[in-house]
């Protein structure tokens, strides 16, 4: 360790007479200074702002399995994370209310059958003048009312997929193909009518939610590109009403399942904006402040040249810049503090 430090000191001393913007270095000096480089690239986008965001499933692809009748859960066959087909059996519920509705339907069907026959008879008698027409109308009205009640009970039962093996039981089934996101029931538990029992994600796409500062309202529109590391997505909604507490609006972006993001995690999301012509991209690590100016060190045949640049936007990984450099040139991304010392010494 002492030998390395002494060698670095000798290198810095030997280079102390270097020109203010030109730092000549030999291959051995490059190695001792620990300098690494990266290529300059053309850029069509620039980082606009970086925001903390939360990852979650896409709400427009999430469906809920509803319990149509109150009852007791007798079994749950689904597992969280499991992929299921539409109509797949997920669990079973026993319901006294279902039994009651089925019994009422049978009774109403019998009454409706009798009422329909009675209405037909009274209509014949009324047509022959044996009874008043009003009696026929009353009989027809009762028959019609019973038909409506029968239809209502049928619709109630139709909302449940009956378990043919067990009276009073109905099956919980998947309304769409997808992946089980959550299970809100367990065997032996009670469930209320119209309560959520399971949640299914129909697709693996993800939504990211962030708070966009009020001063950027109008600058970020649906379709704008965003990034999280190497993953890319797009803005799907940007609010217009400012929250007085946070002075921000809700921003949502959509990412594909292949992005590798994990629901429930917190990430840093960068909003991207179109960049002017001749914009270049370099690693953010290539930037350093030299005499209050943003500077990069461009590799030359004999060392490095310091070049002042205009930073158009940056995040933790990439910076969009403009300046007197060309795509393909290489810039220092490590050892910048040593190069800065050499430049500022002159």
Q: If you had to describe this structure to a student in words, what would you say it looks like?
A:
This protein has 346 residues and is of the alpha+beta class. The protein folds into four domains: 15-44 and 277-345, Beta Barrel (conserved putative lor/sdh protein from methanococcus maripaludis s2 fold); 49-58 and 204-272, Efflux pump adaptor protein, beta barrel domain (Elongation Factor Tu (Ef-tu), domain 3, Beta Barrel); 64-95 and 160-202, RNA polymerase II/Efflux pump adaptor protein, barrel-sandwich hybrid domain (OB fold (Dihydrolipoamide Acetyltransferase, E2P), Beta Barrel); 97-159. Helix content is 25%, strand content 40%. The protein has five helices and 24 strands. The chain has helices spanning 2-14, 27-33, 96-127, 133-158, 336-345; strands spanning 22-24, 36-39, 41-42, 45-57, 62-67, 71-76, 83-84, 89-94, 161-162, 169-173, 178-183, 190-191, 195-201, 206-213, 225-228, 231-238, 248-255, 266-274, 280-283, 288-290, 293-300, 303-314, 318-323, 330-334. It is elongated.
């Amino acid at each position: 360790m002492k030998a390395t430090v002494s060698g670095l000191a000798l290198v810095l001393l030997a280079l102390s007479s270097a020109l203010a913007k030109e730092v000549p270095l030999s291959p051995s000096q490059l190695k001792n200074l620990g300098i690494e480089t990266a290529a300059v690239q053309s850029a069509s986008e620039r980082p606009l702002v970086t925001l903390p965001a939360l990852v979650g499933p896409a709400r427009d692809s999430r469906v809920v399995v509803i319990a149509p009748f109150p009852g007791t859960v007798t079994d749950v066959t689904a597992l969280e994370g499991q992929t299921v087909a539409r109509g797949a059996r997920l669990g079973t519920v026993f319901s006294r209310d279902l039994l009651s509705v089925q019994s009422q339907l049978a009774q109403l069907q019998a009454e409706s059958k009798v009422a329909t026959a009675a209405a037909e008879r009274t209509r014949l008698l009324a047509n022959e003048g044996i009874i008043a027409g009003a009696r026929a109308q009353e009989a027809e009205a009762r028959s019609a009312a019973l038909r409506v009640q029968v239809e209502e009970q049928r619709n109630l039962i139709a909302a449940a997929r009956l378990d043919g093996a067990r009276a009073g039981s109905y099956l919980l089934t998947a309304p769409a193909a997808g992946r089980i996101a959550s299970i809100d029931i367990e065997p032996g538990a009670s469930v209320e009518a119209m309560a959520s029992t399971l949640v299914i994600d129909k697709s693996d796409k993800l939504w990211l939610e962030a708070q966009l500062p009020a001063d950027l309202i109008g600058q970020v529109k649906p379709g704008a590109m965003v990034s999280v590391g190497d993953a890319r997505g797009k803005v799907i909604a940007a609010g217009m009403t400012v929250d007085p507490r946070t002075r921000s609006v809700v921003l949502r972006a959509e990412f594909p399942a292949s992005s590798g993001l994990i629901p429930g995690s917190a990430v840093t999301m960068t909003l991207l904006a179109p960049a002017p012509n001749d914009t270049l991209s370099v690693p953010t690590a290539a930037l350093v402040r030299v005499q209050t100016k943003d500077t990069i060190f461009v590799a030359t045949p004999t060392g490095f040249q310091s070049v002042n640049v205009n930073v158009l936007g940056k995040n933790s990984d990439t910076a969009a810049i403009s300046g007197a450099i060309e795509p393909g040139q290489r810039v220092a991304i490590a050892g910048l503090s040593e190069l800065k010392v050499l430049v500022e010494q002159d």
